[in-house]
Write a structure and sequence with these properties.
Elements (H helix, E strand, L loop, with lengths): L5 H5 L1 H12 L7 H4 L8 E2 L9 H9 L17 E3 L2 E5 L4 E9 L3 H8 L5 H13 L5 E11 L4 H18 L2 E9 L13 E12 L14 E6 L8 H8 L20 H6 L6 H10 L4 E4 L19 E4 L6 H12 L2 E2 L2 H7 L4 E7 L4 H10 L4 E8 L3 E6 L2 E5 L1
Parallel strand pairs: 1-11, 5-6, 10-14
Antiparallel strand pairs: 2-3, 3-4, 4-7, 5-7, 8-12, 8-13, 9-12, 10-13, 14-15
Helix pairs in contact: 6-7
Length: 399
């Protein structure tokens, strides 16, 4: 098991005391006060403990620089480096943005729920939401699915989700691939294992590129509402929430505060932000667009490489109850997930963000509201370096 279960087995009072120790650190409580010879006090639990090591990933990505040598093969001009990827020219004043993305271990949650008709939405969303960061309009997506076995009924359910996602993004699905690899893909049950990877390509005119340049202090950071966890931080959430992976709850439990079964809360599809982003970019100068996924609010630091002498301050978070549940359940199982780790791992209620001039704030929010997207100002650009966050009346500096 991932966490020690002695706290649950001993006494609910111990859980309550440990929670208070964390929230109110001025409390002084000894092991003798608890009435036990020893107690498993909370240990800090990080994303790396769930198998995703940020520092190792950063080092690994440095090796990708060798691929920059291929830029010389661009047929129509220079490849352009943007904060979150590259675009390449296709004829005069036209650029393509090509990305590839996965869903990660959310596919395991779909298997746990035995519900497969929405996971394709996540696949499309992860890809097209990355494409629009450059200002590009998604043209097409393609799927690559590795499966234990090509069960026609299962494939039909996957296609339902892909169709829903492509329809929302208004792009075609001209191709795809399903490969049967039973030696690689096992899954939670015989014949149910699969993994999904999606590619998307989009087009943007030169004057519409969202470059990440010219960001200045007092610019406004707007957050677009997420539906919940989306498809990131899933390894951490799974191993805390579900008994299947060492956590607390059965898949169909309804924890206090949630409106429905926890497995469906975690499985809620990722929102597709194509229409809201393209609409606001049509009417307002969007200086930067950030898909708040892996590394969450750490991602904003990349923008400082394109606009000098800036930092970011966030002061408006409205995380859905599932985020609180992840953190609270970790405490109850003998672990501690700090607020800092939550902000490095999860979207905390905002799945996408745009940065606009302060003068364009109200117009931008009005445009987003008319598209049906819930959006709010969540922070501002500052003249000091780094990422500073005001959360739960505490000041946090992300590193």
């Amino acid at each position: 098991m991932l966490f020690k279960r002695s706290l649950e087995e001993r006494n609910k009072t111990v859980i309550s005391i440990i929670w208070r120790i964390h929230v109110y650190p001025k409390w002084i409580i000894t092991i003798e006060d608890l009435g036990f010879e020893e107690a498993a006090l909370p240990r800090e639990f990080k994303y790396a403990d769930a198998g995703v090591d940020r520092e190792l990933r950063v080092e690994s990505k440095k090796t990708l620089r060798i691929l920059e040598e291929t830029n010389r093969f661009s047929s129509y001009g220079d490849v352009i480096q943007l904060p979150y990827g590259k675009i390449f020219p296709l004829g005069r004043n036209r650029y393509l943005d090509l990305v590839i993305e996965g869903i990660g271990t959310k596919v395991l949650v779909a298997q746990l729920a035995e519900k497969y008709d929405t996971i394709g939405i996540d696949g499309v969303a992860m890809a097209v939401n990355d494409v629009i960061r450059s200002g590009a309009k998604p043209l097409a997506v393609a799927d690559n699915i590795h499966t234990h076995v090509s069960d026609p009924a299962l494939v039909k359910e996957w296609m339902k989700g892909i169709m829903k996602g492509a329809t929302e993004a208004e792009c075609i699905v001209p191709s795809g691939e399903i490969g049967d690899v039973p030696e690689l893909i096992k899954g939670l049950a015989e014949g149910k294992g699969f993994d999904m990877v999606f590619a998307a390509v989009g087009e943007v005119a030169g004057e519409k590129i969202i470059s990440g340049k010219d960001i200045k202090p007092k610019d406004v950071i707007l957050g677009l509402r997420s539906s919940g966890l989306h498809s990131n931080g899933m390894s951490l959430a799974r191993k805390i929430l579900f008994k299947r992976w060492g956590g607390r709850y059965d898949a169909h439990d309804v924890p206090d505060g949630l409106d429905g079964e926890i497995v469906y809360e975690v499985l809620e599809p990722t929102i597709i932000y194509v229409k809201p982003l393209l609409q606001i970019a049509e009417d307002v100068k969007v200086k930067a667009a950030v898909h708040i996924t892996g590394d969450a609010y750490l991602k904003f630091d990349r923008l400082a490489r394109f606009s000098r002498d800036i930092g970011f301050e966030f002061n408006n978070f409205k995380p859905q109850l599932v985020f609180e549940l992840v953190q609270k359940t970790a405490y109850e199982l003998g672990g501690t997930i700090t607020d800092e780790e939550m902000l490095k791992t999860f979207n905390m209620g905002w799945g996408f963000s745009v940065i606009v001039d302060k003068a364009d704030r109200d117009k931008s929010l009005d445009i987003l509201e008319k598209t049906g997207m819930q959006a709010e100002e969540i922070g501002r650009v500052t003249d000091f370096e780094g990422i500073k966050i005001l959360y739960k009346n505490r000041k946090i500096v992300l590193k």
